[in-house]
Structure formats: structure tokens, C-alpha cells
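Write out a sequence, fold above all:
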Amino acid sequence: MTNRNSSIYAIRCKENGKIYIGVSVECKKRILAHVFSLKNGTHKIKQLQEDFNKYGIKAFEYYELEDGIAWEKRSEKEDYYIDYYNATNNQYGYNTRKNKSGLTAKVKIKRSLPPLLNKE
């Protein structure tokens, strides 16, 4: 077990409102990795890649929803946000993993991530 804390992040398409929820110990680096694979046409989530190709990088926003999450609680918290945003429903999101924890949430965005992620 590690002592590192995690963050929950979101990638949202402004054109259709769909959202992807993820968790990482290095939120900014993880989002940059998503952007890198999207720009290269190699993202593992087909619908997210298709929308990125269709709308372009400027159509996407990147958020940190929560930080300081204990390592052992990271999956549970990720499920919490996936459930709240209904992100496994293709109409609303890009996530492919179903919520296993059964938690529900009321969510407020903590902060937008730096504009540098929105540059082409």
C-alpha cells in the first residue's frame, strides 16, 4: 500500500456534454497522457476518440473534481463520481467500467485545470 493521495478528474466534451471520469495520483500528467493519445488517434475509448476527431481539442474541458483522496479509497471515490454523472451511459459519458460501489454523490467542481491543456 502507498501513502500517495489521488485525485478524481473529468474530461468533458462541451459540444455534447459527455464526460469521462478518471482517477490518478498525478492528475495533470494523466490528463496530458489522455490528450496525447487523443491527438495521435490512439485513445482506448473509441467514442471519446471519435468525438475528439469530430470536434477537436478546443471542444474539451478538463477538471479536477476532488483531490487528497486516500489511496485505498480511490476506486470507491471514482465509482462515486461515475455514478453521479451516469458516465457509463453512452448518452452521458465515455466510461466503460460500471460503478461497483453503489455510492451516489452530489458534486461540485473543485477547479478547472490549467488552460495549457486546452491549447492545440
